[in-house]
Amino acid sequence: MSVRSAQAQAAIIARTTGTPTRTPAAKEEVRKEPAKPGTGKGATGGAAAGKSAGSSKGAGAQGLQNQDGMESGGSVGAQAGGGAGSLDKREAQGQGRGRFDMLQGESTHSKPVPQGPAREQPAPAAPELSREKKAAEDREHSHNAARQALEGRAKLQAALAQRIQAGMQDVLGRLNKFIKSPGRLGVVNLTLVLSESAITYELWKEPSSVPARRERMALTLGVSPASDNSVLLGELMSIVHQAFVDYQASRPGKETRAQYEAVLQAYDKAGVLPIVPGHDTGPMLAELAGLKMTAPESFSRSLLVDPLLLAVGLNPDEGSDTQIMVAGLTVAQLGTLVAHMRRLNPRLTNKQVRQILLNASTDLKTMGRKLMGNMEVEQVQHMARQLLKLQAVEQLYV
User: Fold this and answer.
1) Is 148 among the domain residues?
2) Which domain holds residue 214?
3) pLDDT at residue 291 above 80?
4) Segment 175-206, tens digit of pLDDT
5) Is residue 212 assigned to a domain?
């Protein structure tokens, strides 16, 4: 039986039973390897099979050929082009995916990302500031601190000027009130002190004991809060000193001083001698001693000291022939002595009282000044009596 008659018989069986039947000749044809082009009977058999596929009876043979291709593991279909359509589709999809991945910045060979709930990625750590940026911030911080310190100093000096002016106005008010009814003693004690040390202690009192106030003062003065008290207090003292200098040179300071001297002139005409402390002896000096700091005498000297009044000094060498300052007595003791001198000699003027006290506190051997003690007090009283006698004799001859 020829190959063609075997294929026709297999097609008839398939149409009647519905089950494909393979003949030994068909199986043998399947097992044969495809012949190389231009050689052997394989090419003839392939051509014959192609012709039977094109005839009217080729439906059964075509089904048989497809069945043979499936049983051969798909290798025949791949070579003959049976699976070419699906392969081209996958390749097109792969090429399209590769182009999309390249547009998205991904690799075409990257692993697929598993589907699932998105995990929060930790925020990247902030990079450290560069040296230039840090240096710029430090410069800006120091510039701001310096500007704030200048503003704080300016505000503090303005407040100090107002405080000094208020102190002078207070003294003027007291003196003007007393001169209206001075009494018969011929002396007035004024215990007020207006000095750099007194004003400094007003500012230093709370910061020295309250850390928060101390830190605030340090920032105002432009000093590091970690600085020692001596450094901070020294800076404060310099600002207060400059405030006193600026006030005395200012127009309000000069006008107030002129009013003060005018009031003292009125006391001199009335025969009443004002006595004031020449220095502040309050707690500020003890504070300086505790910090082992020193200050000039001008730091504690009162702004009220004037040649037209009598002042109490800290040491005998203070004062001059025009500015009389007596050391060794308190304001109250000196006031009592002056009142007693005026009882002994009611004709004493303010200038004569100051001169008697200057002579009694001067050592005639060394021409140096000395403290006022009991001997000096008795000498003052004796001089007052002697002057009274001289005045009486003068009246007799006049």
Assistant:
1) yes
2) 143-183+193-270
3) yes
4) 999 999 888 889 999 999 999 999 999 999 99
5) yes
Q: Are 316 and 370 in contact (CB under 8 A)?
A: yes
Contacts of 145 (CB under 8 A, 6+ apart): 219, 222
Domain assignment present for 176: yes
What is d(CA 284, CA 202) in angstroms, rounded to the nearest whole number? 9
- What pTM value is reported for the model? 0.62
Domain membership of residue 205 (yes or no) is: yes
Kindly report the backbone phi and psi dihedral angles of residue 317, in degrees, each rounded to the nearest multiple of 5, phi listed first.
Answer: -75, -5
Number of domains in the chain: 1
